[in-house]
Structures are given as C-alpha cells and as structure tokens.
Amino acid sequence: MLRKKLSSIIAVALCMAFGLSACGNSETPAASSDSTQAVSEDASADAGDTTASDADGGEDLEDMAEIEMYYYAFIAPKDVQHVEDAVNAITEDAINVHVNINVLDVNSFIQQMSIMMAGSERIDLMMTGFASASYSNMMAQNQLMDIAPYIEEYGPNITETLGDMLDATTIGDAIYGVPAYRNVVSSAYIFMRQDVLDDLGLTEKARNMTSFDEFVEILEAVHSSEKWSYLYPYLYQQGSGPLQTNANVSGNFADADVFDTLGDTLGIVHADENGQVTLNMSTESYQAAAAMVREWEADGYSYFDLSGSGGSCEDYIKNDALFSFISSAEFGAETAKSAAAGTPMVAVKLYNSTISSEACTKFAFCVPSTAKEPAAAVKFLNLAITSPEINNLLAWGVEGVDYEVVDGVAQYIEGNEEPDYHLFDYSVPNQFLCYPWDGDPADFREQSEADLKASEVSPYLGFSCDLSDFVNESAAVSSVIEEYRDQIGSGQGSEAVLQEYIDKLNSVNVQALIDEYQRQLDEWIAAQE
User: Fold this and answer.
1) Closest Cα to residue 145, out of 132, 128, 161, 162?
2) CB–CB of 258/352 below 8 Å?
3) Which portions of the sequence form the region Disordered (predicted)?
4) Domain count, the chain
C-alpha cells in the first residue's frame, strides 16, 4: 500500500472513539466454487480495505493500492517512466491504484517470468506470451489465480466488453484471465510483392485466384521471367505454409480443412465439427497439403530457411530476395505486411478462422498466484478496457512525445522516428480503442471490430484440456515434432518420411494424448447440454 490519506486516519480515530467495529467493511465478493474459497477471502479483505467512504458518501477513505504489471515487447522501449506517470495520472484519481509498469524484451520476459514464479516473487498482473509464459503452460503449472470473485465485484466493464470471449479463460465457475479484446480471428494469407505482379501483368490474376493451381502458375511466371528469376519464388519458415496450426490447405481455397486445435500447441489435435478428435498428421487433408509442398520443392519454387538466419519473411522481401510467403495474420493483413516488408504486398486469404479458445488466450491479462493485489489488478483492467487514453498510452506512448495524431491516425513525429516508447496494439486491454497506426484508415478499428463480431464462434470456445498427467508423453511427442515438422512443412520430407513421422509419433504414445483430448471434450460437450 502507498501513503494513507489524512481523512482515513481521522475516520479510524472516530471509529475507535465510538466503538464502530464494522466501520469500513463492505460486502465480500461471493466465491464461485470451493476451489476459490481462499481467493474469496482475499477479495473480502481487499473489499473491506479499499471501499470505505465517509458518512456523507464523499471522499474515498481507501489506501492507494500499488500493483506490479509485467508485459513484453520484441524490443524493450528505451523509457517507460513517462508512460507510467501518464497512466497513473488516470488510475490514481479514478480507482486509487498506482501501476508500476515493467516492460521486458520477449526473451527476457519468458526467462524472468519463469524465475519469478519459481521464486514466488510478486507479479500482480501480467500479459501471457510464449513458451513457459504462455497461458496454457501457466495454467498447466497452476500458476494463475481464479479471479472470478474479483471480476464479479469489480469487473462489469470486463464482462460487458468481452462477452463470449471470456469463456476462453473460464473453467466451471472459475476465471483465470482476461483476454485482450482484439480481432482474434487469424487466418492464413498468401503474400506477394505487388511490384513484381504489376510488372508481369499478374496483379488482377493474383487478387482473384481461388486455388493453389493458380498460385503455382504465378510462381512459375516469376521463376521463369528474365527480370525476376533471381528471387526465391516462395519461402518456408517455421509456422508458415499451407500446413497451418488450425487448417490444412491444398487445391481450392474454398475446400480448406479448418479445424479446432482445442488449445493444443503441438499441432497434433484435429477436432472436427462433430466433436471427433484425431491425429492431424494422419488426416487426408494434412497429407494432401504435404504432397503439394513436396511438388513445389521438387519444381524449384520453394526455398526454406529453417534457422531464420536470413531474418523474417518480411526481411527477405526488404532485401529484394523473395517474391512470396504464406503466413497467418489478422484483419488488415495487407497493410501490416506491406509496412513490415517495406513495399506494397498483395494479400490473398486462404480461409476464414473461427473465434477459438487458443486465439483468445494468445494474449491474455492474468493475475498470477504470487499476486499481492489481485483486486487492484482487476480494477485496473476494468478501467483500462474502456479507456482510450490508457490503451493508447500502452500501445503508442505519450501523444505529442512519442507520436502524433493526424486525421484520426497515429504516426511518428517527424524527426523522432525512433521514440523512447513504441509498442504494439494487439496486446493492450482493448485494441479497438487505440488510434490506428499510419497506413491504416481512420475507421480501421470500426472495420476490425465489425469483422470480429461477424466471425463464427467455435463450438468448443471455453474448452480446456488438462494434460498434467501426461507430461512425459507430451515431452516425447514434442521432441518428435521438432525432428520432423520442418522437413514436412518445407517439402523436403518424402512420403516415406511422412509415414516415418507418423510411426514415430505413435511409438511415443501420441494416441494417449489424442484419447485424452477426446475424453475431456466428450465430458465438456455433455456438460453443455
């Protein structure tokens, strides 16, 4: 707690003088299950400590709560203090909460969160990320607190804003996080250099193509042209290509096999609309897509950079070494990739994804089990999720210092293209309240939110599989995937290698994991009826 207000001291003295034993108490948030009893007791204590007011209903008598918030950036900003000061100018007056903002680069974030959780160090609020700091991993390690009692008491804006998306972090009556409210519908796109297409007279063909046969025709045109033959026609990197995490695509785009992964991050789960769970690598759609990329590799269209030593796909474009790549992206993909690649790109969507638990929990704000101020953390989220000021501060920094706004669009200030603070908009509490960045239209947020609301919701939104009893099997399966995934995805692995891949997965008992997903999904579906 920070400084105590003088009026609070006076109030306590009056309470003592008149024997008002109930002075300052308030209603306790009700626990939603036996497993949250301890949390509810903490919530009760917080409520009693932070909601007192004077007899006239005037000045707030509460102590100021202080929270430690952690999130990450791919490159840590040079200065956070001026942003923290601006955030606290809002939160201290509005909800009597002081926020200490800690921003780490992504690798340091993953390591530091692991170390801090192992040492039971204080983290009141964090944005989940990757590897050991991912939502699914922290859930498996029982490192996240059930915040349902706090959301019930302090989070009306959270529940109203997120709606069904909150189901992604809900298990029974417990809630383990607040998904960032953003366009979570990520689909795969083919990205192609527009200057090359324009020069070859293929731009209209590219924008209207509906199959990979047409894409191959374009690759051949680039590969055989005198002017552009020096470019790699297509680049594979880990996670890219027609074999996506939640879809296998070959032939006509309209026939893409889009499925739910049920939160699986290994790439083994294929859950269809009928609730049937199978090993993804054994499906016809996976094997057809694998055969297609083998043909690309054999015909000389495909280049692979498995180590990433040449940088990202966008870096290859910037370095004038690449024509196209396939990657997952969200609404506004063409503008975003054009900016990242430094040249106009043509984006062609392969399929439409659904709103899934995995997508919703990719970036989620959670209260770890080591938190000291969970109530204050939820109060902050409840304020932030409806505050344009806080979201713009967390994403772009301080207006007039780190960026400026011209015609409703944020941009760098001329002469300050590398400000002290500049992060991203997809992992703030509410992306739709951020100014769009330079390159997007002023109404981009409205378009994006409309796209989200028009998207189909997975029938399995809210399902979460507990594999804590299958740690050894998961580790063994992960090792096999690391050995074979890129061979298959890049087209280097033959049909015999694909069968070897499947056989090796079966030899480490991958079916035990598939069966467990099926068992828990069956139980979850039955409970919904």
Assistant:
1) 128
2) yes
3) 29-58
4) 2
